[in-house]
Design brief:
The structure is a single chain. By secondary structure, this protein is mainly alpha-helical. Helix 6 packs antiparallel against helix 7. The chain is globular and about 70 Å long. The chain starts with a helix and ends with a helix.
């Protein structure tokens, strides 16, 4: 078997997916924390901006406002530095540093019986499930696309989509730090000829159609009802999917996402897990729609819809 076929075999990609899935767990946990730290830093800067206060309110800022901003800034400065890769993972309950052999995908969770080795606090089953899901998705991409360099690109796309789906589900936020690089990467990949059947013009058109379609729905809904039906992150995510899959994939993705979201939302409502006034984020279903179109194949999806 040629080396490329061996490296990009679905089984090999599944092993890679386990490792990447372990990293995605870290991203899903830390990215929202990093965003919140940045938001509080922005608040601290705004509180200390006397000139800005005067421009907006036409009066001098209250005496304690700048002091509050300074206090907040000091509190942020006292926090332990945090990034995606550093510091090393620790148990949130007791602070036990996770050793390398306690961080082997799936196997460590099973060996530890789903508990911290130090304090025995339960470790959520979502951690190994994310690792397994990433492995299955990578294997599915390898099976669908075969042993070609583009397969690795699409594995990266699927990994980002999974992380975005989980972050949005947890926080109803789709970070620009992930959606925008995903969009630009799709445009670059198409321009470089790395996406068979999609050139730069097709990717740009797909990005524009994806973004503007949900942007238009957002403003129509807001002007009609006075409420916001979705966030700007959804526009950017669909724009990114359009950049990778082309403009023809945009409507199938939205239709799939809408049906899946409705089914999940109704199920949660009937099960009592969706509280009054809460909503189900749309991002996870957009991500699911994109992965579905990729794995089924756009020509087959269009044929099902009678557009082929």
């Amino acid at each position: 078997m040629p080396p490329l076929d061996l490296l990009l075999h679905p089984a090999a990609l599944a092993l890679l997916g386990l490792v990447i899935g372990s990293f995605l767990n870290v991203v899903v946990h830390r990215m929202p924390l990093l965003l919140e730290r940045q938001w509080w830093a922005d608040v601290a800067g705004q509180l200390a901006d006397r000139d800005g206060y005067r421009r907006i309110f036409g009066a001098d800022a209250p005496a304690g406002l700048a002091q509050a901003g300074g206090t907040l800034e000091k509190s942020l400065g006292a926090l332990q530095p945090l990034g995606i890769a550093r510091p090393g993972s620790r148990c949130p309950s007791c602070g036990h540093r996770i050793r390398w052999y306690e961080n082997i995908p799936v196997l460590s969770w099973l060996a530890l019986k789903g508990r911290c080795s130090a304090c025995k606090t339960p470790i959520g089953a979502r951690y190994p499930l994310v690792e397994v899901a990433t492995a299955l998705l990578f294997a599915a991409v390898g099976w669908k696309l075969g042993a070609q360099p583009a397969t690795l690109l699409w594995c990266g796309v699927v990994a980002v989509l999974l992380a975005l789906a989980l972050i949005d589900w947890d926080t109803t936020v789709l970070p620009d730090a992930m959606t925008l690089p995903l969009l630009w990467a799709g445009l670059v990949a198409a321009a470089a000829g790395w996406l068979p059947g999609l050139d730069a013009v097709g990717a740009i058109t797909g990005a524009a159609v994806g973004y503007l379609s949900l942007w238009s729905v957002y403003w129509l809904f807001k002007l009609t009802t006075g409420k916001e039906g979705m966030g700007y992150g959804d526009f950017k995510l669909l724009g990114a999917l359009g950049a990778w899959l082309g403009w023809q994939a945009v409507l199938p993705i939205v239709l799939f996402a809408s049906v899946l979201g409705a089914v999940v939302g109704i199920g949660m409502k009937l099960g009592g897990s969706l509280r009054e006034g809460r909503f189900v984020p749309f991002g996870p279903f957009l991500a699911g729609g994109g992965v579905g179109v990729l794995l089924v194949g756009l020509p087959q999806v269009l044929a099902w819809m009678g557009w082929a």
